[in-house]
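Supplementary Methods S3. Input chains for the assembly prediction are listed below.
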Amino acid sequence: MPEELTINGPDNMLLNMGPQHPSTHGVIRFVLETDGEVVAKATPVVGYLHRGVEKIATELTYSQFMPISDRLDYVASMCGNLAWCEAVERMAGIEVPRRAQFLRVIAAELNRISSHLVAVGSFCNDVGGVTPLVVALREREAINDILELLSGARLTYNYMRLGGVSRDMSDKCRQDTAAFLDHFPPALDEFNRLITYNKIFIKRLADIAVVTQEEAKAYGLNGPNLRGSGIRFDLRRNDPYSVYPELDFEIPVGEGFAGQVGDCYDRYMVRINEMYESVKIVRQCLEMMPDGELTSKVARVLKIKAGERYTRTESARGEMGIYIVSKGDKTPYRVRVRTSSYSALSIFEKLSPGLMIADLVAVIGSFDIVAPEIDR
Amino acid sequence: MRFFADSLIETWPFLQGWPPWLVYTLVMFAFGAVVLFGFVSLFAGIVTVVERRIAARMQFRIGPNRVGYQGCLQWLADGIKNFTKEDLTPAGASKMLYLFAPYLVFTGLFLTFVALPFGQALVISDLNVGIFYILAVSSFVTVGLVLAGWASNNKWALLGGIRSAAQIVSYEIPTGLAVLTVVLMSGTLSTQGIISSQGIWPWDWFASANPFAFIIFIIFFISTLAEGNRVPFDLPEAESELVAGYNVEYSGMRFVFFFFAEYANLFVMGALTAILFFGGWNSPFNWSTSLFGLFPQPLEVSGTLFFMTKALSFVVLIIWLRWTLPRLRVDQLMVVCWQYLTPIAFVCMLGTAFWMVGAHRWGALDYVKYPIFLFGVFLVLAMAARTVRNIRLVGDPVDLNPFQ
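Predicted structure tokens for the full assembly:
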């Protein structure tokens, strides 16, 4: 028996949560040591969805890896595409046409909205409200339709290419996007009226699993989880890439909306507010997007001169960093992906003592953990 | 029931040779069987479809619409499917208790129907301890749930069983206090007596008898939600926390028993609220039918219609709540019960007692029922207006025509 599976308290019970459990959002396993309903310790056990993505990357050429980068985090696969593109392009010094850059940002931000919708929806489902999940998925459906018009796929898009994007935005797609941008903020208000300001919902989440700023930094949280603790850090601003420096948007942070700064409700609200900001970004992009080329000339089999580079972008879940070591071959020598769900998982052992089982489920939801991003 | 049996003896002469107690007993059994198979089972089945359709409407979906007209026979298909499933007993389960638990839940719920009056003459047995009996037999359900949780040899089921024990036992106290308040006002424990001591018109019902009674009605409604494991108190089977709670290991017909009991309970909850606070079968009309000359004394139908309307309105309200609200945490559940509902229920019970003494002394206090009634109407209208406004605000973006 591994060391972490021993029971510490005399009356404690070992409870296996997952890998098949409705609230672990995929195949993650938590070994809980509980005293009745109260969790004494929760140990995450990862690896049930390990596909060896980093190894696969070393076997494929740089452009062949694009469809695999979808699968790093299939809830926000445009962001995975973008991360890989940025990493390779910066390393190889490829220029990307302006129109393609705007298209990339539009796609990534729409995908960020849909990913956050899944996050807050399934979070509400974890807390016990079923209808908010369906309302969120209804909105996500519209985004799926738009991205299908844009890229031809509904979940794993494989839309971006090294040096550009694969397809142009059709007129219909553009109209649909504009219509969606008008429709979405009121729909999100409706969602807020349904669940966000619900008394029971706030009672369940306020002051639960408070992560202070120091803890958040120490455990390497990032993305909305970090901003939920009140730290205004967003790679789109702090380490800008693509056309983000030209765009005007706010970075929402947790302000203790219902309790202390950094509780579950703050992390939830950060995601809600980020969706409003993403709408602003997409709207600006549609206005500013120039005509022009979709891709620049890139060698079919790209060879990058020997070296290494770590490139980070802001995925829907936070920092998605890709570290590439090249020896000058057509395939990378080593690829390492840093994802934020993994670092979010590390804080569970710190947060879990004293929580109830129902709280733990809410905390898992509030960190927006997605299994494929952890295991890769 | 005696009245009903007497009329049968009058109608059918061959019964006159039989000893009356035998006829009474047979009639009771027959009526029980009719209620059980003809009403409760049908209700439990149909209300599952109704709930799914309502939920679908609230969630911009269509819902089951393939079996029968608009899915009205979906429950039969589900039932047949469950009949044919394997009846599985998990390894390490305490076999006898595991097999026994669903029956206990089932029995406990159906026994409550013995004292539920559907009309002036339509009650299996008008027990003189009727409401007390209902509270007592519905405790069987708790035992069944705990047994199911414990005997399954599954820690999630165990947690669900323990949660249900803690929850239902705790919430029996505010429920009991609310029932006591009603008994105080009516002066009888018999369900028929409680109904007939309320008047025909809405302001004569116990919900608006005095301000305390109005509060105690709300407390009663909340506590029945908790006792029936309905959202926001569905902790024993919280699907996102405990997978399925106490019934996680059950399959096939035994699962159906739990499912059935849950939905039959829905009706019991609505019916009890209607009986205790909303005048049961009292109706201002008197439509009767003799069922094509079967009975010499005509059966009163309008009362049953009124009773069913009231009970089913509460059923719909409970379903509405289920698909709107999130779930409380287990400690918050206990806080709601012990820190709020129980003390308030105590105060309301005493308040009602003093109010009754006061109303006996100063008759003018009786007129308070009109403003309370108007306040209740105002609440309902405000809720309706808000719902309509919310629907208008977003429009209705989904076309629910299933034939496109």
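The CA atoms of residues 97 and 293 of chain A lie 6 Å apart. Chain A has a mean pLDDT of 86.
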